[in-house]
Amino acid sequence: MLRIGFVGAGNIAQALTRGFIAAGLTKGQKIIASDPFPQIIKNFELLGTQTSSENRVVMEQSDIVFLTVKPENIPAVLSSIRPHVYKRHLLLSTVMGVSIQDIEQTLPPATRVMRVMTNTPVLVRNGASVFVCGSSVQSEDEAITRQLLEAVGTCDKVPESLVDTITALSGSGPAYVYIIIEALADGAVRMGVPRDLAYRLAAQTVLGAGSMVLTTKTHPAQLKDNVTSPAGSTAEGLHFLEQHGLRTALIGAIEAATQRCKQINKEAKEQTSNGCSRN
């Protein structure tokens, strides 16, 4: 079984861990995480894993290491693990705004680095993930990365230039969908449906619609037309949504989130350069 480590034991590390264990890729005893915050460590231990307050220990006990920390912490993290990176290690970074080049130039030559963008639905093995290959990765590294990410959802290989927009879509997207589910349920409650039932029906409706797109491979517009009868209730609802700019708002949300990602990238790059130069 794979020996997996996490430098940073927050939400995404915990979600990936639950997914990997549920998929049978590894066992809790084969996973170790480090984090400076005792409460986060405690939450991770509840998954049946090993923990440590030292990043060094994670490197020593793992072959595959996820860097799951905040961008502002990456200079200190890279400095702490640099003396403990060996040829056996495959590093997968989920750190927003930190490019593969930023990581590679800080670690020993020929370090195998992958950049991964994933989202919290990996917890229920329905994540939407992408990955970018570093300059020193081998074909088997890509195969392992696919094995890990496909065990907890879908995954695609992409150029690094797309990561910001994909982060805005898939990384932030669950938050947009949760608001849509809540709003759909609120509308049903307003019209007399009990709240528990409204939430359940709204969530299942979103899940079913997404499954239809993925399974049938039919264009969403065609699927929309298939349930829109002339002068019917769906047509009336769609007209209301168009009047109030739902489509424009969602497109704008992706654009705004992408621009914020780019801004964070710029700030992270400056901080990484400054932090690494001090080290």
Automatic annotation (TrEMBL):
Subcellular location: Cytoplasm
Gene Ontology cellular-component terms listed: cytoplasm
GO function terms (MF aspect): pyrroline-5-carboxylate reductase activity
Residues noted as binding NADPH in the record, renumbered to the chain: N55
Keywords carried by this UniProt record: Amino-acid biosynthesis, Cytoplasm, NADP, Oxidoreductase, Proline biosynthesis
Pyrroline-5-carboxylate reductase catalytic N-terminal domain: residues covered: 3-95
Reactions performed catalytically: L-proline + NADP(+) = (S)-1-pyrroline-5-carboxylate + NADPH + 2 H(+); L-proline + NAD(+) = (S)-1-pyrroline-5-carboxylate + NADH + 2 H(+)
Record EC number: 1.5.1.2
GO BP field: L-proline biosynthetic process
Pfam family, one: P5CR_dimer
Family annotation (Gene3D superfamilies): NAD(P)-binding Rossmann-like Domain (3.40.50.720), ProC C-terminal domain-like (1.10.3730.10)
InterPro entries: 6-PGluconate_DH-like_C_sf, NAD(P)-bd_dom_sf, P5C_Rdtase_cat_N, P5CR-like_CS, P5CR_dimer, Pyrroline-COOH_reductase
Domain (Pyrroline-5-carboxylate reductase dimerisation) ranges: 160-263
Pathway recorded for this protein: Amino-acid biosynthesis; L-proline biosynthesis; L-proline from L-glutamate 5-semialdehyde: step 1/1
Family named by the database record: Belongs to the pyrroline-5-carboxylate reductase family.
Name recorded for this polypeptide: Pyrroline-5-carboxylate reductase
Source organism (scientific name): Cryptotermes secundus
Lineage: Eukaryota, Metazoa, Ecdysozoa, Arthropoda, Hexapoda
